[in-house]
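One chain shown below:
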Amino acid sequence: MSDGWRGAVDERLLARCREHERRGERLTRDWSLPVRVRAPRLHVEPEAWRAGYLRADREREIPVELASDLRECMPQALLRDLYRPVREERWIERELVEGTGDRGGFAAMQEVREARKPPPLPRIDSALRAVREYQAWRRALLAERWQPIK
């Protein structure tokens, strides 16, 4: 056994270990990140966002006359004064509508408070008095002597 452990191990087992090592090189992953040097992207255009359908110029077509009118320079004061209704300043006396004399609604709130109170519970007298009256009437009836009809 001059070569040490190699003489003691079967050659088929060694070939199998070599095959496993060879396959392991092919199966291991390279976890290093790729380095690519480039200019940074600027996402300014809607096409870069893949949202070109959001462009405002495709929403509607403006007639040429309107586009030229919008491009014409005009002071904002003139545009504000295009429609300004004129109202005469005069005193308008307020009239009380019938049934609105309670300006703060205090009477209505008092009615609401009264409506929220439950009605008083009915007073139930003891049934003992009615039983005693019935018993007295019955005893009087039984104590009365019966008169013959003829």
About this structure: The helical segments are 5-8, 11-27, 64-71, 76-80, 106-116, 127-143.
